[in-house]
Amino acid sequence: MSKFDLTNAGFGTRSIHAGQEPDKLHGALATPIYQTSTFCFETVEQGSAIFSGEIPGYAYSRGGNPTVNALEEKIAALECGEACIATSSGMGAVGGVVLGTLATGDHAICGKCVYGCTDVVFRQTLAKLGIEVTYVDTNDLKAVEAAIKENTKLIYFETLTNPNMELTDIAAISKIAHEHGAIVAVDNTFTPPPQVYPLKEGADLVLHSCTKYINGHGDVIAGAIVGRAELIGPIKKNVTSKICGTTPSPFNSYLILRGLQTMELRMARHCENGLAVAKYLESVPYVKKVYYPGLESHPQHEVAKRMMHGNYGGIMSFELKEEVNGMDGFTACKKVVNALKLASIAVSLGDPETLIQHPASMTHANMSPEARAEAGIKDDLIRLSVGLENVEDIIADFEQAFAVL
């Protein structure tokens, strides 16, 4: 059977076929799980040639594995990148990017609002390595350019900030960065293809917590870094497979390969449900503000229309009014969240189930109160990941929860 040319194929076709073909040994349709730590060689000479890179092959699963490789090829194809590194967690991807692009004496710019564990890396870990970090609002292009120094090597931000849902114009930031010789790395976890394509917008590296939408089933911890082969190669060779040792297991890679085959269908439902729930929440009298790029009230809605092409995702945050029936906003938020019956209180996102959490005490609890205030993460802010349930049931769950106020 001749291989179908995926070069101009649609997203759904690539999500099913990229990186995967029938097993050459037995013809298995699903990619086999090569659950092995090491690989055998026919001769010493063959082993030496594989280790040196003279010929293709596998030697040890930390450096490469056929199941993991299939996943890397698929994610690279979906992000329209040349190469991909799969990692054992989203933070493994963050570590790979910063250690692969920065060295002692370098300077990095980081978006002022990022995932709490990422914030710890930039505020605490990089300082121990002699790397200076400046935090900026990436929606303020003048502030970004003003923060650039002669030794600035990296500008890092999230496409859609966690948990404030602020969208950054990747193309504008990339233009500024490249004029000064800096690399742009974008965490695209909240807005994976087919929502946003950071590499097409000009970014050099894009990273994911594959735990979320890319796997989509809430049963895997993993990450990925995608970009040009010249950038990805050294990170994989020297960082993720060496100092970090964050290669994912073959079994987890298999689970993500399975999950990716339905990604286009899943994302369409997440986007459809997300917009409907956001509009509902905006109509609730107790709600002060809803942060969702698909709403016309969102500050970057025009940027969202250009970058997201109507696919606004299933992630949003909202605040209740400062005083609700004699309660402060945070007390009212806790009361509503605790009253939900269909939605689960959990810190992940992108699962089939609707998930809700309180960033200040959960995902961003490692940040100091001052850092959270600087990032605009309020104590009464609630983050919601809208799942794949029937949207009428999700809304009905919130209606009965708001009724307790």
From TrEMBL:
Q: EC number(s)?
A: 4.4.1.2
> Which GO biological process entries does UniProt record here?
methionine biosynthetic process; transsulfuration
Entry-linked PROSITE patterns: CYS_MET_METAB_PP
Keywords linked to the UniProt accession: Pyridoxal phosphate, Transferase
Q: Which cofactor does it need?
A: pyridoxal 5'-phosphate
* UniProt modified residues of type N6-(pyridoxal phosphate)lysine: 212
Question: Among the entry's GO cellular component annotations, what is one?
Answer: cytoplasm
Q: Which reaction does it catalyse?
A: L-homocysteine + H2O = 2-oxobutanoate + hydrogen sulfide + NH4(+) + H(+); L-methionine + H2O = methanethiol + 2-oxobutanoate + NH4(+)
Q: Which GO terms describe its molecular function?
A: homocysteine desulfhydrase activity; methionine gamma-lyase activity; pyridoxal phosphate binding; transferase activity
What the entry lists under InterPro entries is as follows: Cys/Met-Metab_PyrdxlP-dep_enz (IPR000277), Cys_met_metab_PP (IPR054542), PyrdxlP-dep_Trfase (IPR015424), PyrdxlP-dep_Trfase_major (IPR015421), PyrdxlP-dep_Trfase_small (IPR015422)
Per the record, the similarity remark reads: Belongs to the trans-sulfuration enzymes family.
The protein's name is: homocysteine desulfhydrase
